[in-house]
Amino acid sequence: MNPIxxxxxxxxxxxxxxxxxxxNFEVRRGEKVTLIGPSGSGKSTVLRIxxxxxPFQEGLLEIDGISYHEPGGRGPFKASETHLHKxxxxxxxxxxxxxxxxxxxxxxxxxxxxxxxxxxxxxEAESRATELLRMVGLSDKKDHFxxxxxxxxQQRVAIARALAMRPRVLLFDEPTSxxxxxxxxxxxxxxxxxxxxxxxxxxxxxxxxxxxREVSDRVCFFDRGRIVEQDEPERFFSNPQQPRTxxxxxxxxxxxxxxxxxxxxxx
Amino acid sequence: xxxxxxLPPLLKGAQVTVMISLSSIAIGxxxxxxxxxxxxxxxxxxSGIAFVYIVLFRGTxxxxxxxxxxxxxxxxxxxxxxxxxxxxxxxLLTGAFGAEVVRGAxxxxxxxxxxxxxxxxxxxxxxxxxxxxxxxxxxxxxxxGNLAIQNLKDTxxxxxxxxxxxxxxxxxxxxxxxxxxxxYTLTLLGYFIIALCIMLIVRFIExxxxxxxxxxxxxxx
Lengths: 267, 221
Description:
heterodimer, A: 267 residues, alpha/beta, Rossmann fold, six-stranded mixed beta sheet, 39% helix, B: 221 residues, mainly alpha, MetI-like fold, 8 helices, 79% helix, flat
């Protein structure tokens, strides 16, 4: 079966800095992939390119059979708004800082895009939104505004909002990094439930190693714009091959152990 | 003549001042949104036209603009009555300053909001009117308040193209009575009361917009 995401020799530069260097990467339909690595290694950039938030300079990219090269267009990096619209219709994203719309209630945050973009009728969109909010455990908060919710609740609304657009590919960009440690669990719980959705392809950038091991089919370690090592999680974590991977894992696992220790002491 | 007798002509002038000020604030606000949005547009022609308009009107004195529209424009065959000229000129000036306020407030909407809108596949115009604008309008209000007051005070200049506004009436009263102190004190008071009303109206609109839990900053302001 064709991969749902295919990067072929993609190069992305910010000025003189090369963030992705001849990057090759494929994701199967329904696969759950975790991207880890030091900051600046290019893992978030992969998600941002997929969401069309960043252009890239060279190479090919295909999502669900749609190429970034617009047929008859002026090259891949000058795609028209209509073409970008088509690419985005298969992809959803959950951001580190939630990015809910502060002037809309929780329900409207979830309803607005299906109504305005998918042209769903409002009643139908609202009943679907209510269903999604129930799934993330927030049906009692639908008339609240984002400022009245905790970070964990806001992130769960953001997940419901992304799901309301029925994406085939859902991108999580460090979804728990901006949360207080005691709120991380509730968001991971929702993502864990989603990981059981057979058809949904998930790409997750995270520093939660235990969670990555638990939910993903494959873990990719990024360093300096390339995937240095990738494997299924059991093998990846128990027997990393590359010295860079081992170094990274031991530093981040040590850190998380310390964090858990200090939390235990605080309680 | 006592100061009571100065009041009827001054009040008549005040009416004209209020009329000119309110209409040019309203038209100016429309121009401000149109030019401010055009400035943030990715279309270079639209943005260019707005830029030229803003620079021209911000960069020249109102008095000269008034004279140009009133005395110079008729020479190429286009002429308006004084009231229309006054309202038009003040609207264009207020619109030019207001456009920068609109542009600034739109640019101040966090970039992450626009990324979230793009991730949900909203069109550009939907993002402008339903995501950016509702958040930006609140930030515009204090600056709009300043512009409205400035506009009111600028209306005094229309007396120089023979409009019988508050300042014009004051001048004529003084010429008749030579009682400068009383006439100008009453005139100052008149402008101040109108300005106070404008401030209250703008403040009221801002409070209305800020009310509710969507923008909790209101609790502190």
